[in-house]
Batch of 2 targets.
Target 1
Amino acid sequence: MRPIVPLNGLFMTSDLHLLEVMTKVLDKLCIKTVVCLSAKAAIQAARSQPFDCAFIDWIMNEDCFDVMSALRGNVRNEKTFVMAILEDNKNLWKAFKASVNLGMNKPQNYEQAIQFIRPTYGSMIKPRRESYRLPVKWNGTIISRLGLGKVAQITDISETGIAFKTSFPFQINDTVKVAFTIPIHGYGKVSATADVVCRSQEGTVGAVFTSIPPDQKALINHWVTGELHSMMSSHAANPILDHKLLTV
Amino acid sequence: MKNLKKKVLVIEDSKLVLKAVRMALEINGFHVVTAKNGEEGLVVAAMEKPDKIVMDWNLPKLHGKALVNQLQSGEHTCGIPIIVMSATSKAELGGDYKDVTTREHFKKDSNVLERLVQALQNQVPALV
């Protein structure tokens, strides 16, 4: 399971003023960054590690194309949210063609940068939010295909499924009905169908939702997002980020 | 054994920019000493007597102009050439900069490190 905070970022630039401005933004948003002072360093980093977001100072089209190609060529970076930082709009379409998600004009100061980048935070975190499993300790009921109900302890929840501990010998590909209550004010009951996708020797079962009413899915998404934001805020209040710097 | 590398003092408050300048200079054979604000820069300059000083303009504790003036009037630091780096150009710094008699100024824009290294190599050849 990947830790949720801080996010991992890639930043390529040879502009020291931009580096100064962006460092403050990255610290504020709790993005631990590999800073690359050359395209060669950025290509190496893009090929070798996963990133939630990337910021490319779009100076030389060819260099930036190579970096984007290395990034998207790494299966772990297919969904990375990439922002091109441009001097003007001349190269914006070239950047989009290279599968950049968003272009921004080069910020002159922290205020300009944070004003533009902060609203994109949801997009940066989206892939991780979709796959992240939050540890919980909830009681739930799991009903097998044969109609046998079992009380189980739900140990993890994500937007796409749950994990629970049970003594019942569920098998992979079994379809189960799950019922549990999310601890929120109001109506937090969830009742869904799920397929068992994994089972550990200790009796923990992983199941992916296959059928869930839209309002209940929205409830789970809302709860997961809220929990993540609360974790982010508490971490961002006291960030200790050691950005890595690559020159080669 | 005496260190034959030419010594450059870098005064910069941004930790990451300082790290970037330091790495660029060290890769190119310079011995780098650092300071993270104006006051510290003044002390380190007097103690280390570098061959050249590279400094940010907007520094905490002692601002660029005051620092340059004190370095140029200091007993141990008056002869040391100074390179100023700033977010804006020399012209944009305007009045604040007009009485300052540093020979070189670099805007912190794209590829500034390459230009800085080139300038240092041209004027302070590293003996390595």
Target 2
Amino acid sequence: MDPVLVEWVLYAIVLLPLIAALIAGIGGPWIGRVGAHRVTIGGVGLATVLSFWVLYAQVWGGAAPLDITVYTWATVGNLSFEIGFLVDRLTAVMMATVTFVALMVHIYTIGYMHDDPGYQRFFSYIALFTFAMLMLVMANNLLQLFFAWEAVGLVSYLLIGFWYTRESAIFANLKAFLVNRVGDLGLLLGIAVLASAFGTLHYGELFAAVAEAPDQTLNLFGAAEWSLITVACVLIFIGCMGKSAQVPLHVWLPDSMEGPTPISALIHAATMVTAGIFLVARLSPLFELSTVALTVVLVVGALTAFFMGLIGLVQNDIKRVVAYSTLSQLGYMVAALGVSAYAAGVYHLFTHAFFKALLFLAAGSVIIALHHEQDMRKMGGLAKYLPITYITMLIGTLALIGFPGFSGFFSKEAVIAAVGYSAGGWATFAYWLLVLGVFVTALYSFRLLFMVFHGEERMDAHAREHLHESPRVVTIPLLLLAVPSVLIGLLTFGPMVIGDFFKVDGSIQVLATEHGLAYLAAGYTGVLGFIGHAFATPVPYLAFAGFLTAWLLYIKRPEWRPRVVAPLAPLQRLLEHKYGFDWLYVQGAAGGGRALARGLTLVGERWIIDGALVNGSARLIGRAAAGVRQLQTGYLYHYAFIMVIGVLLLITLFVVRTVLA
Amino acid sequence: MSFETPDFSLALPEIWLLGAICVVLIVDLFVRGSRRSVTFFLTQAVLLVTAALAITTQWGVTETTFSGHYVVDPLAAMLKATLALLVVLALAYTRPYLEARGLLQGEVYLLALFATLGMLIIASGGSLLTLYLGLEMLSLSLYALVAYHRDSRQAAEAAMKYFVLGALASGILLYGMSMVYGGAASLELAVIAEAAASEEPPLLLLFGMSFMLVGVAFKLGAAPFHAWVPDVYQGAPTPVTLFISTAPKVAAVALFLRLLVDGLGPLHETLQPMLLILAAVSLLLGNLTAIMQTNLKRMLAYSGIAHAGFIVLALAAGTEAGHAAALFYVIAYGIMAAGAFGLIIVLSSAGTEAEQIADYRGLNERHPILAGVLLLLMISMTGIPGTIGFYAKYLVLKAAVEADLIAMAVLAVIAAVIGAFYYLRVLKVAYFDRPEVPPEGSQKPTGPNEGSVGEGEGATPSRPDGAAGTVLVPGASLPIRALLVVNGAAVLVLGIFPERLIALCQSVLGAG
């Protein structure tokens, strides 16, 4: 493989979406709607083709991992701030996933945003997002990653508030922004700890430096010694919790559904929210060194996976159900990372990107058909009106619940098995949460499917008259996403999870030999064997039980529902209030912050800073300035006099010094 | 003393420039009125060729000729190219302004060319004599340029002040040089350096050095030898002010590097406290006085004094990194100052000079692009990251801290914070104040014949944003506006990608 060509290809992959975004963003009024979608789809499409080429080169072409520094931005002391690319298999898989889903979403957007006045702006944003996300996964150092991390956050913010005249959208994007601030602060601190301890931000150098001195400690509070790696990893993971919406920093993701649906699919399901998973996998050599950090990761992931899924049961907004399901699936990925099964976590990310994007886009198709109605209580019986949407959504749902043979089955089964095979109390705890989560997943997924596509038609007469299948720009991406949702697991599970796919070029490093995935691999005999083996665990039965429950309560015996729900009323209330996180943050953190700010405004700002410091020093400087300007009289002899005084001053100083010396 | 035939080919840029000046002089005799632009374009071409010659013939060469009076080294080559290019930039702004006011005469360009020749000679000065000749050639051309608008009282007054004070400074410098000659018994800087490096340097050398420092500080506009700066900046026609604030500042740094580093570098320990005093006084006085100004040109003059303080601080560090920082700073300042005065030129029209800060009210609403350029220039002068001004200040402070001048670095930062006030005030006026259309007749004419330069200093009522605003109509043509936008963008681009320039400055001074 010709490395020069690879470098050139990398530039093109990153820059094409950026250039397209700039053209669509700045030149929007001139190139018009068609021009905007042509240029961005063209740019992202080319980037997709090239990304697949890179994937091919990395996996089958035998290209060595590429680690190049393109540009040194600045050097401060020994610390270099660089821009560079690291392309190995992990990156290549992410690049292909990101560009493929982005391309599908671009095409889909033509149909979804058809009548929106902000058409060009929207295309500019999503192309810009593609650029930022590619920079994130292709970075070879933490600083560039951080910049890209912030850039995807920015685009996410802009897109959640895309309809900026809606108050709920503005609330949601501000919330997303603020919650992500908390996480990003953690990430930045984590990077700072690593930079100050090891003096480099470059992944390769950092891993080498850490491997040499893994047992450093630092004093945070008082004399207590903390393991440096643990502190750094936990801080970085806080960043991941913000971006990947893990408990308790998850509250922004459901609200982000205020943005247009293509965005929910691209940013808030398939790509950006998985950045945290990617980062932990990328930094696996660090996380491997800290059992404490891994345990934190495991517990947070498992809690998210189960408890966020539960909330999905009580939502009536079609997009919010899918959003909570995203939260829950992100929890599965994170839990896999927590038991060192990075390959399984990343693999679930990979399959999830396809079927979750599919689910969101299908939900969007339903929303278009009903003229932007999102309440499932006003749907029902849509299967006959929207056949393609129905079939594809069914495929997505089967993948999500882990129907044997579908892509989601393999990835989720690998995650659960890896956690199950891991030793330790926390792993057992996490295992049962994840297993119960399977039941919950199946329940809310089929609840959604039945409420939307089956049963009585609850929409109003006007909406029913206009019901028809969505245009082809909408259905084609659905079909294209449905294919990998079904097949990708069968084709790639063996090599990617069981084999050495990520290990062979050092993308992911696992220290322990006795970990869950190793047990899994030891007993692996092939795809069919794996499916058969799954039936020896409670997982498929629980999924089926979830399906059965949904079927009973929503199709067969809807009249049973009140009787089932009544004894669970307190639980339902708890779920409808989302465990009170929103209340705590809005009233407690935000409200408390505002109260504190009001107090500080009065005491700190008005009295101390404005009164004494600012106005005081300004008055002082004003007086000094008024005095100094008197020197500038405009008279030539005064000026000459000042100069002569100056000469005298210098000479006197010098003479005094010399004479004394 | 034996006479050797000098190697003329080494001095090719200067010889070319001198010959070309004669040609331009004669060509200018034969062009009339509307075809005056010929002189302008010829001048620019000559300067570009000079820059090219400096790079092609002198880059990488280290030699002396003319019996040691003329030095060629990477520093000289880099300085010459920079100087010529800065002059090109400065002159590019002049033409429409002068044309609109019927002032477009060949003299401007010829004087500028002569000044450039003087600056090039300074850049290659290997002896006291060459340096003094170059300096005088520069200064005399500048005096004439300031007085160039003969009918303007302000300009005449400014030129008079500049000339008298310049002569005084020149005399002091020459006095110092004579002492150094007495102490070292040679005019050659290399020999002087040997004498200065001896165990007990002659006392005369030390005295001479202090006097010479005054001459250099005067050119640089460092306090307390700054008194000419505000009056000249304000009184001179704006294109001339622009010219003075760019290339001659670089020449002043060159003069320092030749005279006080190449020549008297070994005496740095004695020089440092003097430089620190100059730096501290310049920083404080420049920034404090600038706060009170209502006239933008005058404010920029004081800000120039404050920037000179930073440059002197970098020189006071005395290390190669410090010298490189000074060089980078002065080039950065040249680019920023060219943009700032260029903006005044663009916004002025034949009747009105856009020199009151109040004139910039609501600039953003009327000319958002020009306001954007103003924004870039002001934040760059403040030293906000992302602009070239940040790296300039950063390098200076870094050099100062590395040379253990921590207290001075702290002072410089405080001064820069004070400076932020008046830069940001201009932005506040341009972005947040509403333009006022003044009642008929109440508008104070700001034509070139009104008022005297310094007299308003203590007397004008100091309303912070000045009195009635003028509604500015850009008088300049599209190419000049485009140039201004490029100038503004350069501040940003060099602020994001500064390494090449920094590395260049460091390499020619042997640092890094």
